[in-house]
# Entry
Amino acid sequence: METRLPEVVIGKTVQGRDLVIRRYHANENLRGASILFISASEKKRLPQILTSLHGTSVLTVRTWMDFSKRGA
# Structure
């Protein structure tokens, strides 16, 4: 059985702050994220995504093995 992240975090808080899951779309401002999950389907866009996050403290999480070799 697959667990869906949004269902797991509904109503949860961390240090008094609500956890919010948001799906971003291409060319959307990602700087408002605290943690950004980047799926394998976005491999081709990884350089663009990382450039848009330059100078931020957004934690990036991925599902593929060579993520750090791609500049993350």
